[in-house]
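Morning. Coffee machine broken again, so started the prediction first thing and wrote up yesterday's gels while waiting. Chain of 65 residues, entered below exactly as on the submission form.
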Amino acid sequence: MSDGPWARMAEPVQLPDAWPLVEPEPVAGCGRCAELAAGRTAARASGDLSAVSDANVLLRRHPGH
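Came back before lunch.
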């Protein structure tokens, strides 16, 4: 076996503890936030975790909050 660069494994990459992210809370009195939160709840109930993630992203990016 060769002792070249492909003969050894590199050191593992250490990632910061960024997960799990805390889910964003809807702003009280905001209809769009309430709509996104309701959609997130429905998605979670049906097992659609991709839609849950999408709703979280939209809540975080919601303008004006």
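Helices lie at 31-46, 49-61. Going to sketch it on the whiteboard this afternoon.
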